[in-house]
């Protein structure tokens, strides 16, 4: 199932192989429907469906009118239904904030997520950590309670891996505001979307073929471990992230642990989503980014960091 709310534009066919020039004419066809149609033409046996759907997101208020809230509720419900009926999710959006709601839902429903993002000559592909089944969580305690020393110098288990947002210390907001053309993912080197797409597919296949599936520990390129480590999967390594740099034709395989103050996959956010449902999401959509930062403790983290910087400055002054 392909989900998008946009129409095919003239910049798409040169970097997205499922679109043709004819798809751009007369205002453009629906992206999701055009892509699904092309897949069926390539291989008639494929089960491909296009869904036109606008995903609500933080930083883009849905409004407070009854009509706007009703539409947002319908969009959220449709996305929840799609999440529940699929086993794996690819997040290939243009903005950071558009990935937030699918990330929250997928973490709550324990779905495999492969995330891909592009820069002008860089790309990032990663798999999200997959929470342990409830029965295993009951035995092992909170999945957020990951002491840093427990992962230092060792591979990171699949349920301890971070999501797309775990390395951020700010909540998602409107990233399209005041963004120059070269900062948008529509301006890239010609082959980078194909490279990232191929890596995303191969990462999912590698996860599926691993004996531990989504719980597979992350292989990394730290200290060239990936060149010497024994394969635990028939297809080889199963990294957490792939970060590619076309200017140097170089790829690294970093890995990071789950952040207990993450604005998308932390237990604080998931519990709020699972108990308050749409009311919590509506608050996140319509409120400033400080709402999620307050909820997860990022606001307090910022204050503690500022205080540490002030103390450090005071110590320097005393020495002088």
- How many E strands? 7
Low-confidence stretches: 145-153
Using only C-alpha atoms, the radius of gyration works out to: 21 Å
- The count of helical stretches stands at 10
Order of helices and strands: EHEHEHEEHHHEEHHHH
Helix vs. strand class: alpha/beta
Beta fraction: 5-15%
What general outline do the C-alpha atoms trace?
globular
Share of helical residues: 25-40%
Report the span from N to C terminus.
64 Å
Largest β sheet strand count, sense and barrel closure: 5 strands, mixed
Strand order in the sheet with the most strands: 3-4-5-6-7
User: Which whole number gives the mean pLDDT?
Assistant: 87
In brief:
This protein has 320 residues and is an alpha/beta fold.
Structure explained in plain terms:
Helix content is 37%, strand content 10%. It is an alpha/beta fold. It has a five-stranded mixed β-sheet with strand order 3-4-5-6-7, sandwiched between helices. Strands 1-2 form a two-stranded parallel ribbon. Strand 3, helix 3 and strand 4 (112-118) form a beta-alpha-beta unit. Helix 2 crosses helix 3 (100-109). The longest helix is centred in the last third of the chain and has 22 residues, at 298-319. Residues 145-153 have low confidence and may be disordered.
């Amino acid at each position: 199932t392909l989900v998008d709310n946009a129409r095919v534009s003239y910049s798409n066919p040169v970097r997205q192989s499922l679109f043709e020039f004819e798809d751009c004419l007369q205002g453009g066809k629906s992206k999701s429907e055009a892509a699904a149609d092309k897949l069926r033409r390539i291989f008639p046996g494929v089960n491909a469906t296009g869904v036109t759907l606008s995903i609500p997101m933080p930083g883009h208020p849905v409004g407070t009118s009854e009509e706007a809230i009703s539409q947002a509720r319908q969009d959220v419900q449709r996305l929840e239904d799609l999440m529940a009926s699929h086993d794996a999710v690819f997040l290939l959006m243009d903005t950071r904030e558009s990935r937030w709601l699918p990330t929250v839902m997928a973490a709550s429903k324990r779905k495999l997520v492969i995330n891909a993002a592009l820069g002008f000559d860089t790309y990032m592909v990663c798999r999200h950590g997959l929470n342990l089944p409830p029965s295993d969580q009951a035995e092992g305690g909170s999945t957020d309670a990951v002491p840093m020393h427990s992962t230092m110098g060792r591979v990171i288990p699949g349920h301890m891996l971070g999501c797309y947002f775990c390395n951020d210390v700010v909540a998602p907001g409107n990233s399209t505001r005041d963004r120059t053309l070269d900062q948008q993912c529509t301006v890239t080197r010609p082959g980078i979307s194909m490279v990232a797409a191929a890596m995303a597919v191969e990462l999912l296949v590698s996860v599926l073929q691993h004996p531990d599936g989504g719980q597979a520990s992350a292989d990394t390129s730290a200290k060239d471990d990936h060149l010497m480590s024994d394969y635990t999967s028939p297809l080889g390594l199963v990294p957490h992230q792939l970060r590619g740099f076309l200017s140097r034709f170089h790829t690294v395989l970093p890995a990071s642990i789950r952040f207990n103050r993450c604005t998308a996959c932390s237990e604080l956010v998931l519990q709020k989503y699972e108990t308050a449902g749409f009311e919590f999401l509506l608050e996140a959509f319509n409120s400033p980014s400080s709402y999620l930062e307050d909820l997860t403790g990022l606001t307090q983290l910022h204050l503690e960091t500022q205080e540490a910087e002030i103390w450090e400055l005071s110590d320097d002054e005393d020495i002088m």
